[in-house]
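Model it.
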Amino acid sequence: MLNYLRKLSGKERSERHDQHLAQFLTFIAGAANAGGYMAFRQYTSHMTGIASAAADALAVGNFQIALAGLIAIVSFICGAGASAILINWGRRRGLHSQYAFPLLLEAVLLGCFGLLGENFLSSHSLIIPMTVMLLCFVMGLQNAMITKLSGARIRTTHITGMVTDIGIELGKLIYINTPVIHLLPVRADRAKMRLLAVLIFLFFAGGVIGAVGFNHYGFDSALFLAVLLLALAIMPVIEDVITRQP
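Modeled.
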């Protein structure tokens, strides 16, 4: 079990570990996204929807909502940038935990969200947009991490892209091949279809559990996600600490 966790977010990777980590993170993304909506009526992973809402708000002169949408998008971008900085910093130093750093930061931020969420609701109204910024930052952090880790083959919050890819592969699956000289027959990537279907299901399942958890336990439900992230990330960090001791 410990060896599995070490490889799940460690430097030495396989296709299997990439897929398993993506499945965990997609579930977490769905749960955090739903929890954010239950708390503040704002989805934090759906940049397409946020950009569309900001454009609509700007068109009708609602500059406050338009600005909030822009800030959410900038926060997502900053999270992705922070993930790239952490991974490249660890990579240039040959650390086993280069991919674990973004997960640890995400665990800390979700832990803060869980511990301080009630205070956010009872504080000044400016605190709520800041909390939405935090969750957008977390979504960007996670999405960039799995994107870099998998060579842009997998993302954890981009359901639109996943559904599009499934549609493409379904089109290939039902395509009737006729012999064409010098051209290979069209073949669907069934393994990719299965993986994407699992990721979509896990995002949905995470959303359901995140919403139910928030309804029953409030902000404390985010602590479960933080502990899960910590479990996914901690082994490579421990390995680096042990191997780099003088």
